[in-house]
Design a protein that fits this description.
Elements: E1 5-12, E2 22-30, E3 33-38, E4 47-50, E5 55-58, E6 60-65, H1 81-92, H2 98-114, E7 117-124, H3 130-143, E8 146-152, H4 166-178, E9 188-193, H5 201-214, E10 218-222, H6 232-238, E11 246-250, H7 256-265, E12 268-271, H8 273-279, H9 286-291, E13 295-298, H10 310-329, H11 339-345, H12 348-353, E14 371-374, H13 387-393, E15 400-405, E16 408-412, E17 415-416, H14 421-439, H15 452-455
Helix pairs in contact: 2-3, 2-14, 4-5, 10-11, 11-13
Bound molecules: zinc ion.
Length: 470
Amino acid sequence: MAERWLLQGATVVTGDREHEDLPCGDILIEDGLITAMGRELRVEGCRVLPLAGKLVMPGLIDTHRHTWQTPLRGLGGDWTVLDYLAAVRVKLSPAFRPEDVHAGTLAGALEALDAGITTLVDHAHCIASPAHADAALQGLQESDIQALFAYGYAAGSEPSPSFPTPEHRFADARRLREGPLSSDSGRVRLGIALTEMQIPWEQSRAEVCSARELGVPITLHCSAWPVTGPSEVEQLEREGLLGPDLLFVHCTFSGDDDLARIAGSGGSICATPESELQMGMGFPVIGRALRAGVRTTLGCDVVASNGGELFTAMRLALQSERGRANARAGLPRRLDLKAGQMLRMVTQDAADAIGLGAVTGSLRPGKQADLIVLAADALNMTPLGHPRDAVVLQAHAGNVESVMVRGELVKHQGRLIGTDVAAVRQKALRARDAVLERVGGLSALLADHAKLEEHWDLGNGRASATSGTR
Ligand SMILES: [Zn+2]
């Protein structure tokens, strides 16, 4: 059973609409839940964490990351999305064995926790066999992070003897749903990541129906480049399949009509500004999505090319959108997009997007103690000014001193607890070396551009003068 904790004397950013921030507040945690918040709580018999000079806030929530790709970190600093697809999805993914998926997922989940991410949507689309699925799940479970394990239905670029048909994948997801992931209150829960909807529609529909039969949240890559046919959102709407259980990732080329459809259905969007801006996936949809009334969240996506923490994502999201609006205005009289909106995207709105809004995403009595402690006494946060804005505009992952998931301290005083980081590193390095050797080395990675059309509809591959930049 989790210990009783009293967090004492911190600046508390609650991220909660009904609970104001506290310039100097205490938080009582019992059985993994926040049971009281206020000034100078008087409680006996609990462990006290003195936090003068520190800032406590809800744990961050990353709603889109391919955690298995962690061993590929840094390979794609200059990749476009076509380079990424050729290198990672076509070439490298089939070279990942279960032990490599495990090493990557564990290292990536720990990286996220270390950076203050207490909840993660792991878009796990490197599942070539049941053993791959088990390995990814095991990596998440070993890390102590809270996660939606979004089981990827994508078939990969090479045939899988374990999964000759899509139905074999559905059956494997059901195996997990009826076994280790049968609970919707576990620390790791099941979700489904759909194949990109550039396959026969009958299969896309079957994937959605499979997920709905399992009763789990669904996520999908959506409109990340211009395609020739109807959009994913249009197809889903035609069949009456839109719903609040859908989390659409990217939507950079979604028209305003599609955004209105998502808003009307109660679905959510995840923008991944760093990978979108780099790789040529259009302009992040954030400003348009918010104006359309869509719940909008942020993800790190791909550490093969970019960073794996959400402070950078918040800053990029905010300032790129402001930059675009300001450039249009000339000399703007006000900034429409507020820093505090970014914070909400990576906390409460992200929790709502994956059906966890009642249990996590903000600090209030009755919710899980998923929280982080930032060194607000560090030079880059001194003086603190407006605490909420400082989290978005001044903080970085190095300021994350302590992390608590469900009332369990998993990082304290700058160190992950109970984790042999050196051993995790070694496993990730071995995985990197092994997969690169299997594909014939770095020079072979970009050789398969010609095969991309076999797997994806790349449309005309070009934006019109306005699409994606609205
Ligand atoms: Zn992705």
